[in-house]
Amino acid sequence: MDFTLTEEQELLQETVRGFVANESPATAVREIFDGERSAKPALWKGLVEMGIAGLTVPETHGGAGLDLLDAALASEVLGHFAVPVPFLEHTLTVTALIEGGGSEQQSHWLPRLANGDALGTVALGEGEDTWQPTHWTARFENDVVTGTKRYVPAAEKAGVFVVGIAGGGLALVDASAAGVTVEPMPTVDRGRPLFTVHFENAAATELASAAAQRVLDAGLVLLAADSFGAADRLIRMTADYANTREQFGQVLAQFQGMKHQIADMAVDVVPTRGMWWYAAHAFDQKMAGAGRAAALAKSHVTDRAQQTARQAVECHGGIGFTWECDVQIWFKRVMQDRLLFGTPERLRENIAATGGW
Which DSSP helix (H) or strand (E) runs through 246? Predict the structure, then answer.
């Protein structure tokens, strides 16, 4: 069985890579971190025009009709360049509608999500590490939602919210509905701000309850892919630095200790590619154990990515600990990836519990 990427998948990554390398270089991301400007709307618009917003939207609704694995491959590239766009939350909104939406909900929202007329986001967490459907307390009664959600990405620009509700279900809320209030909250990654959203008797429609876990699983895979891309970038940044920074009359890369540390970083990260590839494949094929594969991929890849970020800081020496060093941008990206949708510790506890350990 051939597990290599198809020509189409390689072309997808090359196309996204070429666009974001030109439109979102590290200097542009740094301006956001420095507070000099916010993310350029043209960046997301350009990706929409390339079809990224509708990557997993069925062709009947104006999208490309591709799989989660294809979305994960795009996510890897976005993580590699720390691109400040709402790809994760938008793709998960599409997933929620595909998995749990009725024909009327799908025909109303999916074409708009595919062509960028609307931006979707997911409002699931309610507190620290409260991402599982059993933790949700927002009430859905008489076609309205009441409750507070935290760590909601892109909430200030969203046109529609997918809201986790008590009982483990999902509800769809139009962002323009009365009773929806959005507040910014402190975040680690300034390129991807998070918000607290209050729903007070906000008009909503319910999605099929089975969609909730599928949305979470898809999110875990996309976060794993994003972290992998970020960790890969950190390794390359560190190698480039070691090959140019001189100490005692020679570049750092000539020192055996530095060689070993960079090699260890690569050995830690590169093999994890297979974990999120497999998790995405298992999700697409609806295989038994797909949820477990997603949780394992996210917990392990984000752990390895954070450790790689720490080693990258050390390898950059004194400058690595400063705001001026670009390492901090990718360090903070993997930190946020690690926390969203459940920490590795909590995910492993869930895996153990569901496995009867």
Answer: strand 246-247
